[in-house]
Amino acid sequence: MLDLAEIWPPIRLTLELATVTTVVLLVVGTPIAWWLARSTARWKEVVAAVVALPLVLPPTVLGFYLLVALGPHGPGGWIAGLFGGRSLAFTFEGLVIGSVLYSMPFVVQPIRNAFAAIGDRPLEVAATLRATPWDTFWSVAVPLARPGFVTGAVLGFAHTVGEFGVVLMIGGNIPGETKVLSVAIYDYVETLQWTQAHILAAGMLVFAFAVILATMLLEKRIARPRP
Amino acid sequence: MSRSRVASRLRAGFAAIVVAVFAGLSPALARAGEVHVAVAANFAEAAREIAALFGTVTGHGAILSFGSTGQLYTQISQAAPFEVFLAADRVRPRMAIEQGLAVAGSQVTYATGRIVLFSSDAELVKGEATLREGRFTKLAIANPATAPYGAAAVETMRALGVHDALRDRLVQGTNIAQTYQFVATGNAELGFVALSQVAGHDRGSRWNVPFRLYDPIAQDAVLLRRGAENPAAVAFMAFLQGVEARAVKQKYGYGAGN
């Protein structure tokens, strides 16, 4: 009935994609969030709006642009050329790029809010104690903003797991490389293999519920004043 | 009152409201008929032209939805509001009749399709040797499980004995339209597409796969049960086999049906 060898690869691939995407997003998203929280530049909200775009845009818009950009006539093709390829579409790396863009607001927003909530005071205190800005950032800002990092990481991970439209458009449905869980479910549904579809879909449902509940409980616990 | 009677009354009430709203908003709909047609993606371009002619000749409107044959069949099995189904195989229309979703005896072959190995690169495709030499990184096909054109592509590669060697380089479109798009954007160097998709231009390079390597793709249409009482749906089935439609099919490289 259910072939584990058949459903495991998309699950593993999805977890890999979500893990890599989350790590990249924490690395890329943290400086952006910090700048958005601390900068006084007038046009910073323009940048914030660009980061938030995937919240509003249909995945088909992002998928379409990515398909062109990752292809042989776009920057993706140029990058792929450095490694002997010709397109970043249909590759794991291409999916990571798509997922990073698509899940960016889910990571940047909570971290930005957490940085903003610190306020100027602790940073000024650190400065008067002769801490360098770099030191202040790591020893004061990041620990204080920890709840934001946790929320951002969890949401970024979960949102990548739940991604479908972009992957469908730039993935090419390659087993073990781009055939992620959501695409596998789609395939099962479209080919009337509903037993498999039911099992995977139920798994996703439980996963999504657990993530949302965990995030809520986590926020509640963190929000409580520490003794 | 039993629950099902409540439900049926509600449904009737709701239907009456919908009818009233539509009758009030668009009197045009009341005059000419309308038919919802599910069309296999390979036939998209031809179907658009046929639908336009159908409108001019009969005054009825045809509303087209595209997808792979398997996708559309799944939707139809879940009561999608389609009245005519233009598949890209014979299997799904027959299944539709067997499942009581379509009118028995309405199944006809409206076209015979062909696959083409196509590349946007004018130099790449030079017949079956291109597949044997394998000087490419990605070959696009339609998902063979849902798209008959994808199944024909796999059949061809098996017949040539290159399927196992090329397996790791295959990328799948959800239907033949996405497969063509993968090739047209250059993300895949080449792919098996429908002849109808490349019949209108001579860009790139192509190889018309000979019929000895795969069975010609007999595409059947069927009148769905939802359309059985709709004159526009019945008219569309007839128009599909008429002179005007035949000319369009020929233009897109389809063989005549029966």
Describe what this molecule looks like in 3D.
By secondary structure, chain A is mostly helical. Chain A has one domain: MetI-like fold (Orthogonal Bundle), CATH 1.10.3720.10. In chain A, 78% of the residues lie in helices and 0% in strands. Chain B folds into 2 domains: 32-112 and 220-256, Periplasmic binding protein-like II (D-Maltodextrin-Binding Protein, domain 2, 3-Layer(aba) Sandwich); 115-213, Periplasmic binding protein-like II (D-Maltodextrin-Binding Protein, domain 2), CATH 3.40.190. Chain B is of the alpha/beta class. The relative contact order of chain B is 0.20. In chain B, helix 3 links the parallel strand 1 (34-40) and strand 2 (61-67). The interface between A and B is medium-sized, with 23 and 25 residues.
Describe the SSE topology.
The complex is a heterodimer of chains A (227) and B (258).
Chain A lengths: L3 H35 L5 H13 L2 H12 L4 H8 L9 H27 L2 H8 L4 H12 L1 H16 L3 H7 L9 H10 L3 H30 L4
Chain B lengths: L2 H23 L1 H5 L2 E7 L3 H15 L2 E7 L1 H9 L6 E3 L4 H8 L9 E6 L1 E5 L8 H6 L5 E4 L5 H13 L2 H4 L3 E4 L2 H9 L5 E5 H4 L6 E4 L8 E7 L7 H10 L2 H9 L3 E2 L2
Parallel strand pairs in B: 1-2, 1-3, 6-7, 6-8
Antiparallel strand pairs in B: 3-10, 4-10, 4-11, 5-8, 5-9
Helix pairs in contact in B: 3-11, 3-12
Kindly state the percentage of residues in helix of chain A. Answer: over 70%
Number of strand elements of chain B: 11
Strand content of chain B: 15-25%
Instruction: Quote the average pLDDT of chain B.
Output: 90
Counting DSSP H or I runs of 4 or more residues, the number of helices of chain B is 12
Number of helices of chain A: 11
Sheet with the most strands of chain B? 6 strands, mixed
The CATH superfamily of chain A is known as MetI-like
Helix content of chain B: 40-55%
In whole angstroms, how far apart are the ends of chain B?
52 Å
Rg over alpha carbons of chain A: 20 Å
For this entry, what is the oligomeric state of its chains?
heterodimer
**Largest beta-sheet details of chain A:** none
CA-based gyration radius of chain B? 21 Å
Catalogue the unreliable spans of chain B. 23-30
